[in-house]
Amino acid sequence: MSHSNVTIFHPAGFVLLGIPGLEAYQIWLSIPLCLIYITAALGNSILIVVIVMEHNLHEPMYFFLSVLAIMDILLSTTTVPKALPIFWLHAHNIAVDACVTQVFFVHMMFVGESAILLAMAFDPFVAICAPLRYTAVLPWPVVGRIALAIITGSFCIIFPVIFLLKRLPFCRTNIVRHSYCEHIGVARLACADITVNIWYGFSVPIVMVILDVILIAVSYSLILRAVFCLPSQEAQHKALSTCGSHLCVILMFYVPSFFTLLTHHFGRNIPQHVHILLANLYVLVPPMLNPIVYGVKTKQICEGVAHHQDLVTSLCCNSGTREKTK
Predict the structure, then answer these.
(1) What is the pLDDT of residue 259?
(2) d(CA 202, CA 117)
(3) Handedness of CA 3, 201, 174, 266 (dihedral sign)
(4) Structural domain tally of the chain?
(5) Is 319 domain-assigned?
(6) What is the pLDDT of residue 263?
(7) Which are the contacts of 122, defined by CB distance < 8 A and separation ≥ 6?
(8) Phi-psi region of 93 (alpha: psi -120 to 50; beta: other; left: phi over 0)
(9) DSSP-H helix ranges across 90-200
């Protein structure tokens, strides 16, 4: 096709197909996706409220955990509320700006959550390897600057993606074979060279995340070395249980994300609907499991939740007693 015969246009919106190949089952698939999303949003909201209300949880680790919970809510809310109308109401259209916004927040939350997990690995490293210097190394002003640096850094890393997408001309189709907008998936619809999109949109975030993984691995190797040098088994068990929930959250974040990434780029024989299902589960399952893991494995959070349950029960009982008295 000659260049003169190519009609270039800038679409007013895109069409999200949902899960191509599973159109007949989308209504049934949407039910567990909706339940998982509700569980993730509710669980992370409860976690944030408990951390804010309980004074014994006002520590750097739980502050970072609350930031992680906020990012989990944003990650799942960016994608699922738009995907569900596709499955239920066949509302496939999405405006260009809304599509670019989805791309931005999905990628920003991915980079941001990885950085938060690194910060959460640094906290037990200081607490176990240098306990006497903990308050000097991690005072609240430093913790606030770390959180601000993570948010600002994630924003600056992903922000150029907006311009990389907005500059592209389209000449073939505006149909996105996915349930939400993803950077490379949208860029591949363009009739221009997308080498910069591929290199920046794929390489830069991945390099940052791999660097986070390396630093987390170094941190926990030093933590484990320090733990096994502790004099008593009870102290070792307490230190390991403190780190156990964080290690579970790290594995739940990185294993599905890297598996999804590798199958997307190298799994040529894997059906497309499998890729899309994995992508949807990735933005839902870790946010759902994170508050459950921390709630079950962390004693302070369990006590905080139980305290608020007892408080609510007491208020309800007192209210009922007052009604009967009247």
Answers:
(1) 75
(2) 20
(3) positive
(4) 1
(5) no
(6) 67
(7) 219
(8) beta
(9) 96-129, 134-137, 140-166, 183-187, 195-198
Tokens of 262: 């590798």
Q: Which range marks the domain in which residue 68 is found?
A: 13-296
Helix segments in the chain, DSSP class H? 26-53, 60-89, 96-129, 134-137, 140-166, 183-187, 195-198, 204-227, 233-266, 272-282, 285-297, 299-325
**CA distance linking residue 64 with residue 123, whole number of Å:** 9
Contacts of 215 (CB under 8 A, 6+ apart): 118, 121
8 in Cβ contact with 191 (< 8 Å): yes
Residues 190-199: contacts with CB under 8 Å, at least 24 apart: 191/6, 191/8, 192/168, 194/168, 196/164, 197/161, 197/164, 197/165, 197/168
The span from the CA of 228 to the CA of 223, in Å, is: 9
The DSSP bridge partners found for residue 14 are: 94
Residue 309 falls inside a structural domain: no
| CATH (domain of 22) | 1.20.1070.10
**First-to-last C-alpha distance (Å) of the chain:** 84
Long-range contacts at 268-276 (CB < 8 A, ≥ 24 apart): 271/21, 272/20, 272/21, 272/177, 273/19, 273/20, 273/21, 273/22, 276/19, 276/20, 276/177, 276/178, 276/179
Residue 128 lies in a domain: yes
Residues of the chain with pLDDT under 50: 1-4, 310-316, 319-326
* CA atoms within 13 A of residue 116's CA, in its CB half-sphere: 28
CB atoms within 10 A of CB 86: 22
- Does residue 98 fall inside a structural domain? yes
Q: For 127, how many CA atoms within 13 A lie in the half-sphere containing its CB?
A: 15
19, 181 in Cβ contact below 8 A? no
pLDDT of residue 116: 94
pLDDT value of residue 99: 92
Q: Both tokens of residue 307?
A: 């305290």
d(CA 317, CA 258): 49
- CA pair distance 210, 223, nearest whole angstrom: 20
CA 282 – CA 73 distance, rounded (Å): 13
